[in-house]
Amino acid sequence: MAKILKKRLPLLLSTFFRITSTAGISVVLQLYMADLGASLLEIGSMSSLRGLATIIFSPIWGSLSDKHGRKRYLLISSLISLLVLLFYPSASTPLLIIILVSIFAAANSGFTPIATALSSENSKRRGVEISFFNTAISIGNFTSKIMIGFTLLIISVKTSLWIFILIFTISVIPLFWIKERNNHRDTKKRKLFFNMEDMKLMRESNLWSIYVGTFLRQFGVNGMLSIAAVYMVYGVKLSPFMVGFLASLNPLVQIFSILFFARMAEKKRNSKPSILFGMFFSVLSLLFFAVWKSPLGIASAYSCLGLGYGAFISGTTTYISFAVSSSLRGKFMGLFTSARSVGVVLGSLTAGMMSQLFGYENAFLVMCTLVLSAFFMILFFFKEKVNI
């Protein structure tokens, strides 16, 4: 047990500090750009460019780690990211911030697919190992939400930015202590980019339905999340403090949900029920946002969203880890990250336009329909290859 913990701890510590940092920076940076006189369009474009960079570069980083080693590219990705971050506080124009954000996102997009693939190789219980990694992400998100409130209340925006950069620096240190198993590479020459062999594997293992369903879920969920704060303040008439408190329920519930559903998927070697639970609770969350306008309704919505995310991420990442060989796992985890990012970018843009034209409630219902279609796609088209 001590040996496994020693093997697991460096990556989990790095993940926790990294997510705490990046989640905090993404919020503080919006305020920093506003102080520089950026327009709402410029501030909003950061999210789109961040998503676009993730879509493009996640599979590339994953493929490189498949070919040349996980630890090496975790370090390269992290050190480049840190170098870019150090320029943030000295950037004097919104345009320069946008350029730096794009470069940072391209470098930082390597962490999740490589770290997920590395987690799956820490023991034979892949689903459980990945659940610890996903839990570290949720704890980092929860911690960042608490820290943002305290730091911005006490100190300036620029000083807050430096604090989160310092936390990112701390996150790089444990990576040097990672001990990598070198059995994930094979003798077959692998192509860096997506190709026909990958398409064939996706069809044979039914991974295509996972990726399409993931896109639809993220489209709906992140579309909702992109306007949720404004909706709660102006539509439900909640205070900003209450908005922050209720939003923190999502990552808090995720912590327990991930651990529970990962064990269920791992024990039964059947990820489909977990994925379906994730889609169902996500649909329920969007319904609550649309029709239950009270603090209790919003709390229920965020709690359901946390349950849904835990079930969804546990089922999908566990299945991907069993559906592809270790020599392709980085690439396919990268494709999974890309599918989510496409949904994030398009969902955020669509929900914003729809809420302005048709109102928040109608926008939520449309997003809910998209997630419901993802539920039925998994239900009817995803047939798990239990012997992979």
What does this structure look like?
Helix content is 81%, strand content 0%. With 388 residues, the chain is an all-alpha fold. It has 2 domains: 1-174, MFS general substrate transporter like domains (Growth Hormone, Chain: A); 193-388, Growth Hormone, Chain: A (Up-down Bundle), CATH 1.20.1250.20. The longest helix is centred in the first third of the chain and has 34 residues, at 2-35. Mean pLDDT is 83; it is low at 183-187.
List low-confidence stretches.
183-187
Quaternary structure annotation: single chain
Strand content: under 5%
The description of the largest β-sheet is: none
Global shape: globular
Number of strands: 0
Q: Report, as a whole number of angstroms, the end-to-end distance.
A: 27 Å
So, the CATH homologous superfamily of the largest domain? MFS general substrate transporter like domains
List keywords for this structure.
Growth Hormone, Chain: A, 388 residues, 15 helices, 81% helix
SSE diagram, text form:
Elements: H1 2-35, H2 40-68, H3 70-85, H4 94-108, H5 111-120, H6 126-154, H7 157-172, H8 196-204, H9 207-235, H10 240-247, H11 249-268, H12 272-291, H13 295-323, H14 329-358, H15 360-381
